[in-house]
């Protein structure tokens, strides 16, 4: 559809970028032909206490074993803090925090962050937390969240962050699954002018979490909260008496750094386990290359630390690279939908990384809130989380980036630890809607349903044929589920669960989850393609497409459509949209049903949960499956109520 739009790398960008096309090619070739040599050099991005001699020892066969840098020793917090201070950058801002309230912000230097991390690490050790113990972090987007992560890393405790928007039940099930002994939370969080009762939620959750011995509570809004004697401890009182230095634990490269549960788009969340050495190398490598990061720049990833994007691209990647990372407590729509751009101007943000769900929401409000702000500091724009529709991509590129800034559409997963497929700003020509090419060291492939490798331009299941350092090592406590989920569908390959198309230039186009593929009269269709056609209509803000049972065609196409603010859903518009999709894609893609959707069911991280929409379309509304990670359950009720053909 949009294959023919090729946006070349601008000469000015190519000539100043760290990696240009020739260098990218050379890196990719070397990483494939001599992975040992390539990673022996790249691993020096992180500070080793003992340099590894063994580089790669991985097998996707049988029991599946993935080890990188296995005899190396390091501490992730040292790479993120100590060595920058030793290099004379202690006074540089590490975390630039912007509050929910537009009048609140703060700057924490590398030296200050180091001191805060050490104090908390000492306090945790004093509470008996040891290397390998699991610590749950349930915090809003405040500096304490990064402090808590790095303090865990400092003493070798394994953090498991639960997004602050999750309910007591979701929090409890994650604490139980990994048997955390310590919970770190806050009195309340703030989001879009409202308060989130974190401590109250935590108290509720802990009724069913006997493994928790202590709760450290950060003061954020200052509201009075119940403190259970002997269990709950005030962060400030606890840390004030601790020293500002703390001996970092020597960690083996393969010792766990964190557990993180996936978003639950496709089913029950999985406890993804990442280890220290490979993850840190991958976080630094990808943050550096994909964003072409340069010293002194202000870098902003709008994700929450509760998602893997926040782990790798707010905390570990940027801090490993000595960057100034902006941490944002608020939401894009508050106080108004110009907030992102107001913050960009206020802090002179150079690199901006967000999600398609945010871009589509902002598009609904038109260009005016964007154009009100200058945005002249912006240099690179990024997208992650879902396929970005070409229409949204172009809006991001033209309206937000004024056609000056390359857009990096980054495909990756909680499981992959960091970005795997993405353009590099100075090296890869872009196509709106395509994640383009794999990063050096990543070997994607497409296979058909029988696992046969597809060559050249093709469409199929996206697999990765060899390991990369940032790969997850296991599902926490359930290695059999790890092998079963990722390595049993196609022998000897990591199966991503996503479908993709590769065009004649070798560019990858993610077509959506394989489970979401629709089969209409024998024609396989990715949901992303039909959705993009709908979103390309000027009156459509967002769309979700699923298959529904159909007597003749096997599956029919059921579309949920959210209109642009102010547009009325009429029968004439419904007909117009059906005709529109027919014209954009072809008669085979003719929608069978269009339901007007004031809202779509999304995960807390903003991804559309198509499995729920599939159930509604099939009228199987009494078996919606795991809905614990749903952002707004009311949306589902509304859709069930107004189902087409009910
Ligand atoms: P679960 O695995 O529990 O169902 P999830 O897959 O939503 O949850 P994440 O790891 O947060 O959990 O999301 C990874 C998925 O997000 C990818 O498999 C892919 O479907 C989608 N995704 C991420 N980035 C992109 C992108 N740039 N283009 C297309 N899809 C993307
Ligand atoms: Mg997934």
TrEMBL record:
GO terms for molecular function: acetate-CoA ligase activity. Its EC number is 6.2.1.1. Its cofactor is Mg(2+). It is an enzyme of class 6 (ligase). Acetylated. Deacetylation by the SIR2-homolog deacetylase activates the enzyme. InterPro entries: Ac_CoA_lig (IPR011904), ACAS_N (IPR032387), AMP-bd_C (IPR025110), AMP-bd_C_sf (IPR045851), AMP-binding_CS (IPR020845), AMP-dep_synth/lig_dom (IPR000873), ANL_N_sf (IPR042099). Catalyzes the conversion of acetate into acetyl-CoA (AcCoA), an essential intermediate at the junction of anabolic and catabolic pathways. AcsA undergoes a two-step reaction. In the first half reaction, AcsA combines acetate with ATP to form acetyl-adenylate (AcAMP) intermediate. In the second half reaction, it can then transfer the acetyl group from AcAMP to the sulfhydryl group of CoA, forming the product AcCoA. This is Acetyl-coenzyme A synthetase. The lineage of its organism: Bacteria, Pseudomonadati, Pseudomonadota, Alphaproteobacteria, Acetobacterales. The gene is acs.
